Amino acid sequence: MQQHELRPPRGAKKNRKRIGRGNGSGHGTYSGKGIKGQQSRSGYKTRPGFEGGQTPLIRRLPHRRGFHNPFRVDYVPVSLKQLARIEGADVTPESLRDAGVVSSVRQPIKILGDGDLTNALTVKVHRVSASARAKIEAAGGTVEELTPRKDPEQKRQRRKKKSAAPKAEAQAEEPDSAEDADSTEESAADDAPKEDDEQNGE
How far apart are alpha carbons 144 and 5 in whole angstroms? Predict the structure, then answer.
């Protein structure tokens, strides 16, 4: 077999569908587009996902709503009445784990003010609520948070700096415009005597 004798298999090649070339071709009159309707008109185009006006699939599928905060910190809550299980005056994540109050020390711990306290304890955990702090200190104990809190004053100063930056730029631009105005007034004052001298000379 020679190269010029190669032929495609039967049915591999099909003639192009020529529409609108008379009824004798089988694709005349409406040219395969049906009778009237949106899709029979020229310029027909729809956006992706459009389903003819019915509720599209993307809206029929169930989905979860809400927002997931990636910076959220989940604390293990521990109440004051649970501190009675601990032997000794020092309350640390390790002592809470040894007493069976918490199962692990991998997550941060927060002491809540539920219950009363009579013993003077030295509490060293990640967070302590305001009510729990007041009860611990009233019983003669001390509180130390292992993770520092963000100072609200620093946040306020940052906001003030951000708000003051545009004002400073605007004030820096104003003297330039004032200097331009003064220079134009001076030039006008210099030109005025020259005009008077020319008129007097005439």
Answer: 93
Rounded CA gap, 56 and 51, in Å? 6
Instruction: Calculate the CA dihedral of residues 30, 32, 34, 37 and round it to 10 degrees.
Output: -90
Q: Is the pTM of this model over 0.90?
A: no
Helices (H), the chain: 57-60, 93-98, 130-138, 152-201
End-to-end CA distance of the chain: give it in Å, rounded. Answer: 112
Which residues are CB-contacts of 130 (< 8 A; sequence separation ≥ 6)? 113
What six digits make up the tokens of 19?
Answer: 């529409």
Q: Which residues pair with 77 in a beta bridge?
A: 110
Structural domains in the chain, CATH included, are 76-145 (3.100.10.10)
Residue 141 and residue 123 in contact, taking contact as beta carbons nearer than 8 Å: yes
**Each residue of 45-89: pLDDT tens digit?**
999 999 989 999 999 999 888 888 999 999 999 999 998 778 888
